[in-house]
Design goal:
About 70% of the residues lie in helices and about 5% in strands. The chain contains five helices and two strands. The protein has a two-stranded antiparallel ribbon. Strand 1 and strand 2 form a beta hairpin. Helix 1 runs antiparallel to helix 2. It is globular and about 30 Å long. The protein starts with a helix and ends with a strand. It comes from Escallonia rubra. InterPro entries: Bifun_inhib/LTP/seed_sf, Bifunc_inhib/LTP/seed_store. Keywords: Signal. This is Bifunctional inhibitor/plant lipid transfer protein/seed storage helical domain-containing protein.
């Protein structure tokens, strides 16, 4: 009888842990949406000069290295993609130390 109690208790504990992990995951998803807003603003402020053809500043490179593609790719509209161009975008990202997978699609740019 005690082994059934231990088994039931262990099962209940596992269910509670899984539910707690699921709730933490849901909370972090909400936080990452808010974080995306902050990341976009920081990137725009740091990297605005590259739109006009200037090389990225150290601050821009720092933002490009730490920003999440999931936050940034939706910003790449066809108009912005035409201003920067895929080959220049690759040079900027790799020059800043950010690696890209082959044939990676980010917004309106598909990288070679």
């Amino acid at each position: 009888m005690t082994s059934k109690k231990v088994s039931w208790t262990a099962t209940a504990l596992v269910i509670l842990v899984v539910m707690g992990m699921w709730e933490m995951e849901m909370a972090s998803a909400a936080a990452s949406a808010a974080q995306c807003v902050v990341e976009k603003r920081l990137l725009i402020d740091a990297c605005k000069p590259i739109i006009s053809g200037r090389p990225p500043s150290p601050q821009c490179c720092g933002r490009l290295r730490v920003s999440q593609f999931a936050c940034l790719c939706p910003m790449i509209t066809p108009k912005l993609a035409a201003l920067i161009g895929p080959s220049r975008a690759v040079r900027i990202l790799e020059g800043c130390g950010r690696r890209l997978p082959r044939h990676f699609k980010c917004g309106s740019i598909t990288f070679p």
